[in-house]
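Justification of resources, computational component.

The compute hours requested in this renewal are based largely on the per-chain cost of generating structure records like the one below. Each record pairs the submitted sequence with a full structure-token output. That output is archived, and it is also reused by downstream analysis tasks.
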Amino acid sequence: MKHITFYFDFLSPYAYLAFEKLPEALKGASYGVDYRPVLFAGFLKHHGQLGPAEIPPKRDWTYRQVLWLAHAHGIPLQLPAAHPFNPLGVLRLALACGNEGLVNRHVAETVFRHVWRGGADAADPQRLQELRAQLQPQRDPASEEVKAELKANTDAAIAKGLFGVPTCEVEGRLFWGLDGLPMLRAYIEGNAWFASGAWEEAAALPKGKTRL
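The structure output for this chain reads:
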């Protein structure tokens, strides 16, 4: 059985879609999953990048594409009242329901659907209070312990080479995005391509010209 770590930020619509699609995409395969929240903004800061929603034309395309992908895959999705929003409240709430930096699928599903179903404000304080009452976390989401777990998750993910969400890690290999799920399944099933050297060769390609 292969072990998958699913890294995500509730801010990402692609993470929501991949989360919903994962059981279907891997149906019949032998695997287990850990769900580990991270702060996507930490990745952007580390790699010196803007998020998709920070580039106006890309922002428009992102929302159009995720609405189409949800439609195409039969996944309910309504854009929240405002996006991007500050995801710290929902990330810390989810972590407060788990332990050692992990959350279970029920908690992740509940929070994802809080954000991506219904079209309401994901960061609205009243809604967050209602979500907290529903989840009944064992720990205080505002505690230093929970804050430290989120930072540790994010720092450890960056150290492993993560640059975006969602990312699935299996045996040190990283599979990024909703469209990476078929490739992930192929690896879990032992597709011969992964033993051909192509994976390693792709990372060894010399740089041609570097933009100044």
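The domain at 2-203 is CATH 3.40.30.10 (Glutaredoxin). The beta strands are 2-8, 31-37, 167-170, 173-176.
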